[in-house]
Specification:
Layout: H1 17-23, E1 35-40, E2 44-50, H2 70-88, E3 95-107, E4 116-127, E5 130-139, E6 142-155
Antiparallel strand pairs: 1-2, 2-4, 3-6, 4-5, 5-6
């Protein structure tokens, strides 16, 4: 049984979308993580992406047989890893994580509408300006994708610094 306030408690959200958006510059339709359910600062993060049939990429990938593109599964792992690293160095929106390499990417199972993607990222090495992480994405208990990702942390352009979180009504027409 875990202690109250333990950030590695996997049953509830540690970070909801609004907090993720304070850390990452990504927005709909390219924000590919919905919630963080586990976070060990500087070491590990577990995120969730609920894959719905309404995702824009399903219109063309593939008509009649929708599959989440593998590159977007890797991007979801990269976003979870970026959240982990940016949170470790302050998470103020003053930095971006730029991925510099993807190694040993393997796609084991297709990700389909209705699936919940559980993304696990572990830090292999990290200094304030560069890192290397191992990402795995699961559907249920089945491994869907895995990769090693390398990155650099760079200053955000002035237009991105301290950008406010998008309102909950983003993408909804207002009267």
């Amino acid at each position: 049984m875990s202690e109250p306030g333990n950030n590695s408690q996997p049953s509830g959200a540690v970070m909801e979308s609004a907090e993720i958006q304070r850390i990452l510059p990504h927005r709909h339709p390219f924000l590919l993580i919905d919630r963080i359910i586990e976070h060990t600062p500087g070491k590990r993060i577990v995120a969730v992406k609920n894959v719905t049939v309404n995702e824009p990429f399903f219109q063309g990938h593939f008509p009649g047989f929708p599959i989440m593109p593998g590159v977007l599964v890797v991007e979801a792992m990269a976003q979870a890893g970026a959240t982990l690293l940016l949170k470790a160095i302050g998470g103020s929106g003053d930095n971006l994580v730029m991925f510099t390499g993807i190694e040993r990417a393997r796609f084991r199972k297709p990700v389909l509408p209705g699936d919940q993607l559980r993304i696990e990222v572990d830090v292999l090495a990290f200094r304030r300006v560069a890192g290397r992480m191992q990402g795995k994405a699961f559907v249920g208990d089945k491994l869907a994708c895995e990769a090693i990702m390398s990155c650099h942390v760079v200053p955000a352009p002035d237009s991105q610094k301290s950008a406010p979180a998008a309102p909950a009504t983003e993408g909804i027409a207002q009267p």
